[in-house]
Structures are given as C-alpha cells and as structure tokens.
Amino acid sequence: MQRIESTAALRAQVKAWRQQNKTIAFVPTMGNLHRGHLSLVDRAKALADYVIVSVFVNPLQFDDPTDLSAYPRTIEQDIQKLTSVDCDVVFTPTVNVMYPNGMTNHTNVTVPNMDDKLCGLNRPGHFDGVATVVIKLFNMVQADLAVFGEKDYQQLLLIKKMVHDLNFPIDIIGSPTYRERNGLAMSSRNQHLSDDEYDKAAELHKMLLTVKSQLEQGNLSFSEIEQQAMASLADLKFIPDYVDVRRSGDLEKAEKGDKQLRVLVAARLGSTRLIDNIACNLA
Ligand code: PAF
C-alpha cells in the first residue's frame, strides 16, 4: 500500500489507473480505524479495481476544540490495518494541504434541510464542516464511487443530496452498520466507554429493535413510540438527545401513512455521545 500526502501525487496515481481503464473507489475517514471502517474498505474493494482511503482529522467539523485535540491520531496502526485489507492507497493530507489559507477565510458548503435537524441541532457547524471537507476530498481523489457507513445516516443522506445538487460525477454507496457482538454500533467513541457503559450501550440497539417492532404492529402513534423510547433510555441513565421516527429518503418528520422509515437515536452515556439508527419499511 502506498501512502500519499500531496494532491498532485494522488492525482498522478489516479490518472495512471484511469489510463488503464481501471475504476476507483474512495473511503473517507478520520482515522482511528476499527472493524467498521475496514468493512467499508471491503465493500469498496468489491465494487472497484482500486481503493483509496483518506485519513484526515477535519478541524472544520468539530464544534468543540477539546474534542478536536482529544481525537485519537493513530496513523501507524491505521496503516497496518489498511494494509491487512489490501487497501491500495492511504491519502493523508495535512491541515495545511487541506486548508492552505486557513479555515476562517475558506469557502464553506451548506446543504440545506439536512444540517438543521437531528444531530445538526446539537452540533452547530458540524455538517457544514463535513460537507466542505468531503467535497474537497472528492475533488482531490476523483473516484468513481465513495462508500459511507449507514451508522452516520444523516451524514450519508447529506452527502447524497450534496452530490445530487452539485452534479458531482460520483456514486455514493451506503454500507450497513457494523456491530459489536452485543449489538452496539461500532464507533471510535466506544473506546471511551467503561466496561459497565459498554454493556449498557447495547440497550440502544435493543431499543431500536423494540421501536421497529412497535412501528410494524401499528398500535401506537409515532410520537407515543418516540416518547416511550426516550423514557426507557432515561430510565437506563442515558441522557437522550432524540429518538425520532423520520422518512428515510429526506429525514423529514414521518407522518401517518409514510412507509419508508428510519428511526434515529442520539444519547449520552456518561461523557460519551452515541448515535445509531435502524431502517423500518412498513408493508
Ligand atoms: O464520518 C467521518 O469519519 C467524517 O465525517 C468524514 C466523512 C471522513 C469527513 O471528515
């Protein structure tokens, strides 16, 4: 696996592959890789001839500077893991390569009707930071397709909308959430959980399964189901930000009669904020 740090060197490699009529898949990450990320690389490998993974901790998407400085930088271990799954290139731009003029005097991308709900409400500026860095990475890498995890479902839809709105020639592929044995969605944040919290965090997925079966039974309204789920999490000493039943295509509030649903949750357990979601397609 090659490690590339400059945009020019990356483009030269991509150009050489293109001249051989090869296809290229891209997996953007912030590093500190776990099995969930590697499952995205596996998916990318199945879909294209070559796979490029970026590792870049993007300052623009952190609303809290303490979170940014505490974010684990583990590039040597990341490289080992990417080598073990036959990744072709790891792209590791520095902050200076990504934002040569700094971050205050920089063009920002805002995706309307996606950044002002759910996690967008709790994390001001976060989704603008994500959209801006992802569009820059797409321009730097110029891949045929990019793979994103469904765990960050709002992020996935935001990127799909941005690509559609801006006519980007890239396919966005959502890949199913990779889970721990106890059902907890894999996340770099799970390492901050104590042993007790790790066990308890499994309740988040169980709650989503309960909500899904309540929706399928159809006896309660969406808001009754949401309120019960919030209360059950609070009983378990989570601090829930939201449990919401949304339309899966655009994340608008679901209404009676909507069939393609996504249930999304964000909750704090101790000092760790966890998110998860589940699809629910009613017949
Ligand atoms: O999901 C992430 O790890 C990040 O938000 C992403 C897409 C790599 C952008 O920095």
Topology diagram in text:
Elements: E1 2-4, H1 7-19, E2 24-29, H2 35-47, E3 50-55, H3 65-70, H4 75-84, E4 89-91, H5 95-98, H6 119-122, H7 126-141, E5 145-149, H8 153-165, E6 171-175, H9 195-217, H10 222-235, E7 239-247, E8 260-269, E9 272-281
Parallel strand pairs: 1-4, 2-3, 2-5, 3-4, 5-6
Antiparallel strand pairs: 7-8, 8-9
Helix pairs in contact: 7-8, 9-10
The structure holds pantoate.
Residues 28-30, 58, 61, 130, 133-134, 152, 155 line the site of pantoate.
Determine the N-to-C terminus distance.
Answer: 46 Å
| Range of strand content | 15-25%
N-to-C SSE string, H for helix and E for strand: EHEHEHHEHHHEHEHHEEE
- Major sheet: arrangement of strands: 1-4-3-2-5-6
Taking pLDDT < 50 over at least 5 consecutive residues as the criterion, the unreliable ranges are: none
Ligands, deduplicated? pantoate
Radius of gyration: 19 Å
Please estimate the helix content: 40-55%
- Total helical segments: 10
